[in-house]
Amino acid sequence: MKRKILGFMGVVALSLSLVACSSADQKADTKKKAKDDEVTVWVQYSKESAEGQVMTESIKKFNETNDKGYKAVVEYIPRSGSGGGYEDKVNAALTTNTLPDVLTLDGPNTAAYANAGMLAPIDDYLSEKEDFLPSIIDQGTYDGKLYAIGYSESGVGIFYNKDMFKEAGIEESDLPTLEKPWTWDEFNTIAKTLTDKFDQPAIDMGFDDHSEWLFYAFTPFIWSNGGDIVNEDGTKAIGVFDAKENVETFQFIQDLIKNKYSTISPSEAGFQTGKYAMKMSGSWTMQELDQEYQDIDYGILPYPVSPKTKELVSPTGSWQYGMTASSDKKEMAGALIEFLTSEDELYNMSMGNTVLPARTSVANRMLEEVAEPMQMLIKQNQVSGHSRPVLVEYPKVTRTVQETVTESTYFDDNKDLNKLLETKAQEIESHLK
Which PANTHER family does the protein's record reference (predicted)? Predict the structure, then answer.
């Protein structure tokens, strides 16, 4: 199953690597203007997907119930595994001024899109911003203005096989809680127990996924240890990314490979088929387990924390709605965005697509209805969610961080890690200028 929020390519650096359109593409993109009472929206998934099915119902409801006679028209443009398809069409539309009124965008792209003048602020069109999680507001805000609003949240935890834990002698009383998560040292002890017992890696951390996952899922370890990617105003990485706190974090990551607790090349569906006792992943794996691998009795544990700070940090961020600056139907577009992000519509999206909620009110409703694993992810998100940095050059920065995670698994000592982080800090800072 494809990750819904990861797989982040370098969409818009704006430079935005604009894709040149052929004359045939331009003709197709400019074929006919929407009617005066129609508002157009592009989404990055198929109509047949879980998201698409919810969206179809939401649009039908909007068209039938809004009191101004607005009509929304959706174009479903699925992304490819590498992130193409949808982004290609968005980039091409920029060159022909044929963007829709509303589009979806991945959270980390907010700054690049807004800085490019591609988005219009939407603060004035949303009446219940206080109900959205802080992480949702943070990821959609650039230069003090809200340019996008998330329609779902995301989170990651440590999936564990209850039967394998029992077989290894790990009792329920040994398990971490949100109030008392495992430190890295305690996590390593458990991983060693499982590795020794089953003579194979204890956990699939996703090291083979060379995509946004490596930034999204591993930066919480950096933040938990008191480190960061760049300084607060996003202008420096030297002295930040290569700080001793990050060297310690990457030592923890590196040791997972050195000690054979994890592997760079995990077996496909290794956790789902009972090969590995643990897997670091998000709600998409929960959906997969519940639908396709029902023999696995699993639970979800919170992120391990730095033994220095003991601060629980977990990743957040997902897809959002934004209004294009080129739209001449901003009142209509704003009305549609507010409707699609209303409590009932976000509840339907979260339940229908097995994703975390973007609003507190939806989270409260879901906590009374969903199973324990989803409850854990929702609660962890509420108490420890940390959004990715809002940087105009984020597409370049994330690639460097991803490469750092990958390359750290090939080094053998602290000296090499120091040198690696110094080099990568210089590279990140070059992106910021």
Answer: MALTOSE-BINDING PERIPLASMIC PROTEIN, MALTOSE_MALTODEXTRIN-BINDING PERIPLASMIC PROTEIN
Main-chain dihedrals φ then ψ at residue 144, nearest 5 degrees: 80, 0
Instruction: Write out pLDDT tens, residues 288-316.
Output: 999 999 999 999 999 999 999 999 999 99
**Angle made by CA atoms 9, 12, 17, in degrees to the nearest 5:** 95
Strands 156-161 and 278-282, bridge-based pairing: antiparallel
Task: Report how many helices (DSSP H) and strands (DSSP E) the chain contains, helices first.
Answer: 17, 14
Collapsing DSSP to helix, strand or coil, 158 comes out as strand
Question: In angstroms, how far is the first alpha carbon of the chain from the final one?
Answer: 38
Q: Coil, strand, or helix at residue 266? A: coil
Question: Which residues have a Cβ under 8 Å from the Cβ of 62 and sit 6 or more positions away?
Answer: 70, 72, 336, 339, 340
Q: Has residue 23 got a pLDDT over 50?
A: no
Q: How far apart are CA 211 and CA 404, in angstroms?
A: 12
270 burial via Cβ count (<10 Å: 0-12, 13-18, 19+): middle
Q: Smallest Cα–Cα separation from 265: which of 277, 251, 276, 250?
A: 276
Do 179 and 254 form a contact (C-beta atoms < 8 A)? no
pLDDT of residue 306: 98
* H/E run at residue 41: strand 38-43
What is the rounded distance in angstroms from the CA atom of residue 148 to the CA atom of residue 163? 43
Q: Are strands 71-76 and 38-43 parallel, antiparallel or unpaired?
A: parallel
Nearest to 338 by CA among 201, 89, 151, 117: 151
pTM over cut 0.85: yes
